[in-house]
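Two proteins were folded this term; both appear here.
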Amino acid sequence: MARRTARSGVWAAAWLALASTAAAQQPLNFVACPIVRDTASVPCWLSEYEGRLYFLTLQTDVSAPVTPPWLGHRVLVEGTISSEPSICGGVVLKPVHLSVLEGDASCNTMLPAEDRYNLTFEPPRPPGPSKGRLAFDASAAPAAQRRDTSTPREFVISYAFDGVVAFNHAGVLTEILEFARAANAGAIEVVGYRGAVLLSNGQLMAEAPAIGRQRAEQVAALLQGANLTTPTYTVTWRDEAAPAGGVEDYLSRRVVVTVRSR
């Protein structure tokens, strides 16, 4: 009897561990107001959904992997619940993708600093001015010249919801530019896509109808404006929104650039 009880306890513990892991890996997509919490080091961004507080990112700059949201605007949060310890009192979403949406004057909550929420780690970049640039960064892709340039190469540019080129696209745009120059590119194909996202509450959000065209034409114009004018350009787009299933829907918001050498 004791052995059976012990075995039952082991199975129960294993089931609880499995359930906890599954919950920690649950995708979560929602639209809400962002919240700023002050700390002794660097402010952090949070958001509340169904009565639970979630950590989004730190207040950094345009060079950070996750761009902070804005007060005065709602934010689309697409993340995965992590098992990491909470930060600033919020459950960690990792990875997380944030998209600033329409203005909302009610999104103005700022929480005061509390000792229990002081961060014990440094922000991801040292103090000082940002090196982010709107389009191209000459230092972003020094290895481009060393790549195999004899075969076509495909580049994917990802976007925020309804977004176009921003500061955080400098690296990939520079990589495309440097590869095209190294390959003596003869043809560049640019395809813009329109995405959609299925929220956790069942609501479907589709991007603006013309966003695929806007993205494709902007990328082509930026490359040509950087004196990459010798290749022939084929610029197309998809007007229909990609299907959305609630998991990694952000991947559908993209431009695909294919560079072919002469």
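Next, the second protein.
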Amino acid sequence: MRSRADPLSQAAPGDEVSLPPPRDKGPMSVEEAIAHRRSVRDFRSQPLGLAEVSQLLWSAQGVTSPDGLRAAPSAGARYPLETYLVCEQGLFHYRFREHSVVKVQESDLRGPLADACCGQSFIADAAVSIVFSAVYERTTARYGERGIRYVHMDIGHAAENVHLQAEAMGLGSVPVGAFDDAAVADVLRLPNDRQIVYIVSIGHPQRD
């Protein structure tokens, strides 16, 4: 269990928690991360620190330039993705401009999320899951029906960043695409314009 001194635990729904600044240099090259990355489904019951959470969320959708461009490319810089963190301390929404998270729900939703994802128990065992939702209208407003394809490309870019970042941090990750859309929506209770498309579960691998 996490200490109540942990800022994510201390936060109440609606509270914003600032994340530590992300680093832009690390001990593993991108080539090594690509070569070693594999899906991991066996996790130790060890939480992630706030700095690790910060780094993962930054790799997904963090700001990487003074003009507001982000870590993952987006068609027309429309940025349709809204990113959420599911962990023991609750459900959090990532605010990319502030590099912070806002608590949305207090409960540990990892078990219910696993149930909604066809009973894949490793989701409940993982320290965190990053949930990518999409506001399709941000992209389709410019590109029409083809914008749907562009949104899916955006999600692929962002998710691969997370997988490679996790590998570089010595963590394991696994993509999750098998889930009941309505059941996941019922668990997370996101705004109606946000469609959940991709989930990445992350934790300390048993192999260590």
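The chain is about 35% helix and 20% strand. The beta strands are 16-18, 81-87, 90-95, 100-105, 128-134, 172-176, 195-203. These notes refer to the second protein only.
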